[in-house]
Input
Amino acid sequence: MVKYVAEPFKIKMVEPLKMTTREYREEKLKAANYNVFGLDSDDVYIDLLTDSGTGAMSDTQWAGIMTGDESYAGARSYRRLLKAAQDIFNYKYAQPVHQGRAAEQVLLPCLLKKGQKCISNMHFDTTRGHVGLIGARAVDIVVPEAKDTQTYMPFKGNMDVPRLEAYINEVGAENVGLIIMTITNNSAGGQPVSMANMKATKAVADKYGITMIIDAARYAENAYFIKQREEGYADVEIIDIVREMFSYADAFTMSAKKDAIVNMGGLIGIRDSEELYTKVKGWTIPYEGFVTYGGLAGRDLEALAIGLYEGLDKDYLRYRIGQVEYLGGRLMEEGIAFQYPVGGHAVFLDAKALLPHIPYNEFPGQALACELYLEAGIRSCDIGSYLLDLDPETGEQLQSEMEFTRLAIPRRVYTQAHFDVVVEALINIKKRASEITGYKILWQPPVLRHFTAKLEPLKK
Output
């Protein structure tokens, strides 16, 4: 029996949740055009849609909010954040922005040109979208083990370094504008990247004169996995692992709404290039506001400076990843397939294994997400073919190598009993899996369609 890791905190405030019937949820899902992003949060019992900005801040962070400096320029909260970022990442420059996609909007056009290739271990949705908006092409080169959901590998998020170098030689280094290392690798199931792999990838980037950056949304979780799984790091402090990780990149983008445990915020880090920082400042001002607030209130800057450190606490990280491991262990006991081992922030259900009769172009990951809501009011999301936009050249539906339904766990929010409800719901769904149908898209925007697309279930 898998053991639940007890919370390293006590609860001093609660938020009521509404209990609903299946009939009520059927009505609400239909009104949302079978897009779980269209549901009202009041109609969701357990919200596992995302871990982005959904965490519970600490008493220290809330206290910091009360002391935030709301000055337009030169606020002390900005200086505190800058000092924290320089200390943790050992980078010379840091630029706050309002969230991760804002960091991509500001930084990527400084590094990537139309027609170039952008290589990653795997791009997440907003990153892929911003690469496409520039007119560049996103290329994923993750290790093949990531596609085998049932076999254990400690670092399934790794870049396939030999294939990376072969691809660069195939297309020409001058046609590769950027290499992005996503830690943890969200689209591969929240899987971590090893230190050795980061070092080897940076060596290839340097060999061919290609800039390498980190998508750092879940950097602390990745560092914890390195401490737990990689030889030579068991006795190394989390912050020192973080500093080494970031030494193997030239810059980073971060959605601070994940591992920094804030409800809004993002960062751009630049190791030592004053030229690049000058470009970033130039784009920040029209897109995000003056550089010392970057689209954030002073109170948000203050909470972010505190949260960057709280997210590195080893007791917190043990509990945080322990929650995900508990949910995964319970599902394994019930024979429900997921990307094994679990990631740091989510369990990625293998929708293809649970719903093998639903083809990729009828979106099994989305079908399972809808079914979870109907069964128990649980909101999740597709990380599969539905997540992918249409091929920009042919207009055809792209096929994802993995068809996942992601159960993303908000930080410091849910208890063991909530996870048991999730397991019970999936047990019931498994019993009638053959009755579940796929979905078709009635309307979709050209980019990042899964946020606003309208769908309907196919008839049995």
